[in-house]
Amino acid sequence: MADESVPPPPSAEHPLRVAVVGAGPAGIFAADALTRQSEIPVAVDLIDRLPTPFGLVRHGIAPDHPKMRAIRDTLHRSLDHPLVRFVGNVEVGTDITLDELRHHVDAVVYTYGAALDRHLGIEGEDLPGSLAATDVVSWYCGHPDADRAGVEAALAGVRSVVVIGVGNVALDVGRVLARTPEELEPTDMPQHVLDALAATEVEEVTVLGRRGPAQATFTTQELRELGELARATVLVDPAELVLDADAEERAAADRGVARNLAVLREWSQHRPEPGHARLRLRFYRRPVRLLGEDRVTGVEVERTAVDGDGRAMGTGELEVIPADLVVRSVGYLGTPLPGLPVDERSGTVPNEAGRVLRDGRPSPGEYVAGWIKRGPSGVVGHNKHDARETVAGLLADAGDGTLRVRGPVDDLVRTLQARGAEPVLLEDWRAIDAAEQALGATRGRARTTLHERETLLAAVRAAAGR
């Protein structure tokens, strides 16, 4: 006789129930990998604290990148899978505790990203006119939690901007601020963002890197787009493109670095053009303090040299770059969910190939993927391989009996609704999607992003006749 105390393995009638916390690319790729395989029957609840899916594809990729943002059409197909249920507008730790969620499912995959910005740790960083790139990006992408008043106050009257960092996000911020209103008008930015940017006449943007061009982390595709702006000229100092032996070796071994250098060397021949904004890329400069009393007026920087280990070393040579606005883009950190360990230094959940570690040991039924697993690195597509690695471990655990179906429990959505929460399901999201397209059509655009949580939920209620 079978031991009835041992939970059964997953079956078509009783699939393994998995909650994926975070409906961005990493979460959707994880849900897709879980449901497209046929060996282990799996049903997925894809949970997000926002009423909308797609994470950084919706709220991180700059709106003037329509081709890159089109990846959400691919992601949307995964949401249509009959064994995937989108459960938006639900915050784990507030609407439901982590322990309660784990009671409802057999396994949890945490994919909620890394949204906290890193600080510079220098004098003047808290002055008005000093912003994190996360603040600016959330604002121009229409994130419900964006600090609209703070960002728009910082932009008022700005003529010169310094963006600290040489990754893709730094280039995004510099490019958006240097664009003309006519270039931005067709995008899906909220109207208040377009209005504020149209009123901001930026004359100079300086993108600042503490190391050399061979160590910059932006991609060539992102870099080249700076040269396509309607009324902005990219300027590069030829002297900053002279490489030492270590950097030359790096460029020879890395095609991406070599392509970047080729673009930068072409631009080093540019000269300022009348009527154009100046978009300067500067290297070997690190900020040592932000200047100003009532608000930022400039950045004091120190010239650096890169040592054999690729570290920026100060030379003691200082200069001041005038700036009405400073935007730091020097990395992201993950924040912990209540009850989930996060390493404070790396901002990631301790894990071994995606299996969450508690006290150094794998925690049965807990997994992690995306930036909260590996840190903020790579482009959207890197999350697919990352998610597949995690899912492979989860399925292996289900195959060897580490994970089993614990039996029927109350439905997660019904439990949340009974508590007064307002989960947004896939059909609700379709109502939001339709409302955004309708709003965009009033101005000849494909879409205009709804940026307030209550407005998003109002679209849901209106479609449901509530």
Short synopsis of the structure:
This protein is of the alpha/beta class and 466 residues long.
CATH C-level class of the largest domain: Alpha Beta
Q: Determine the fraction of residues in helical runs and give it as a percent range.
A: 25-40%
Say what the CATH topology of the largest domain is.
Answer: FAD/NAD(P)-binding domain
Number of helices: 18
Class per helix and strand makeup: alpha/beta
Largest sheet: 7 strands, mixed
pLDDT average, as an integer?
92
Cα-based radius of gyration, to the nearest Å: 24 Å
Number of domains: 2
How many strand elements?
Answer: 18
Shape: globular
Residue windows where pLDDT falls under 50 for at least 5 positions: none
Distance between the termini: 53 Å
The CATH H-level superfamily of the largest domain is: FAD/NAD(P)-binding domain
* Strand residues, percent: 15-25%
Structure notes:
This protein is an alpha/beta fold. The chain folds into two domains: 192 residues, Rossmann fold (3-Layer(aba) Sandwich), CATH 3.40.50; 212 residues, FAD/NAD(P)-binding domain. The chain is built from 18 helices and 18 strands. A seven-stranded mixed β-sheet has the order 3-2-1-4-18-17-16, with helices on both faces. A hairpin with a 2-residue loop joins strand 16 and strand 17. Helix 1 packs across helix 15 and helix 17 crosses helix 18. The chain starts with 15 loop residues before the first strand and ends with a helix.
